[in-house]
Amino acid sequence: MDNTLIAIIFLVALALFFDFLNGFHDAANSIATIVATRVLSPRYAVMWAAFFNFIAFAFFGLHVAGTIGKGIVDIAQVDSYVIFGTLMGACSWNIITWYFGIPSSSSHALVGGLIGSALVKAGPTALVMKGIIKTLIFIVVSPVVGMLLGLIFGVIVYNLASRSTPSKVDHLFRKGQLISAAAYSLGHGGNDAQKTMGIIAGLLFSAGYLGTEFHVPLWIVLSCHGTIALGTMSGGWRIVKTMGNKLSKLRPVDGFCAELGASVVLFGASAIGVPISTTHTITGAIVGVGSLKGVR
Questions:
Q1: Per-residue pLDDT tens digits for 202-235
Q2: Cα 217 from Cα 202, distance rounded (Å)
Q3: Which of 164, 172, 179, 290 has the highest CB neighbour count under 10 A?
Q4: Residues 170, 253: contact at Cβ < 8 Å?
Q5: 0.85 surpassed by pTM
C-alpha cells in the first residue's frame, strides 16, 4: 500500500470523524426544542433525531455536496494538504465550542477551514468567489429568515388557536412537534451530512479515484448519513440547555413553530445547494417565536 493511498484513507476517516462531531455537536440543535418543551426525554429525542438524520439521503439531492466539493475553491487546487488543514481546523473548533457549551456552527468552521487552507496553498486564485459570496450571503440571511418564519408561524398558529385553552393547544402540539422535529432533523441531515460528502468526494476526485467527472458515490452518501446519525445518537448535552431553555422558555406550540420555520429554511437551502448553519437557523427561529411572548 503506497503512501498516497494511506493518506487518502486517513483523510476519509478524519472527514467521517468531523461528520461524527457535527452530529454530536449539533445534536442539541435537533433536539433542544423538543426536550425543552418536554415532549420527549433527551434519550428518545436523540433517537428520533438520529433516525431522520440518517434517512435524509432519500429526500434530498446532492447539491450542497457539489458546492462544498467544487463550488467554494477550485477543485484543481484541492489536495491532501488542503483537506487535512480544513478538517483539522473544523474539528478543533467543534471540540472547543462543545467543551465550553457554545452553540457555534460546524458549517462555518468547515467552510472557513476550506477557504483558509486553499488560500495558504495557492492564494486568492484558488477561491471560487461566486460560490463563496453566495454561501456568505445565505450564512447571514438564514438565521434572519429562520427568525422571521418562526415569528410568522407563531402569529398564525396563535391566532388559529386563540379560542382554545392553553392545555388543549399544548396537547395538540405535543403531537405536532414530533412531526416538526422530524422535519428539522431531515433538514439537518440533508444539509450537514452533504458537507462532509463534498469534502470526501473532492479529495477522491483530486486524487484520481473518481474518474474524469466529479460525483458523489453511494458509499460516501450512506457513510456520511450513518456517521452523522451516530454522532447525534451520542449527543451533545452541554449545549442543549443553552439552545432550549436559556434562549427562550418554550411551550410545545412554540417548539413546533420554531422547528417548522427552521425546517423550511434548511429544505430550501439544500434544494439550491447552499451550505448554511443549522445552529444559527434554529437559534433564529427560537428567538423569533420567543419574541411573541412580549406581545401575547
A1: 999 999 999 889 999 999 999 999 999 898 888 6
A2: 11
A3: 290
A4: yes
A5: yes
* DSSP-assigned beta bridge partners for residue 127: 73
AA letter at 61: G
Give me the residue label for grid cell 445534536: 27
Range 157-165, long-range pairs (CB < 8 A, 24+ positions): 157/253, 157/256, 157/257, 158/253, 158/292, 158/296, 161/253
Q: Which three cell numbers stand for residue 209?
A: 479515484
Rounded to 10 degrees, the C-alpha dihedral 201/203/207/208 comes to 10
For 214-253, the DSSP string reads ----HHHHHHHHHHHHHHHHH--HHHHHIIIIIS----HH
Span 167-210, pLDDT tens digits: 888 888 888 999 999 999 999 889 999 999 999 999 999 999 99
Dihedral (CA of 229, 29, 149, 155) sign: positive
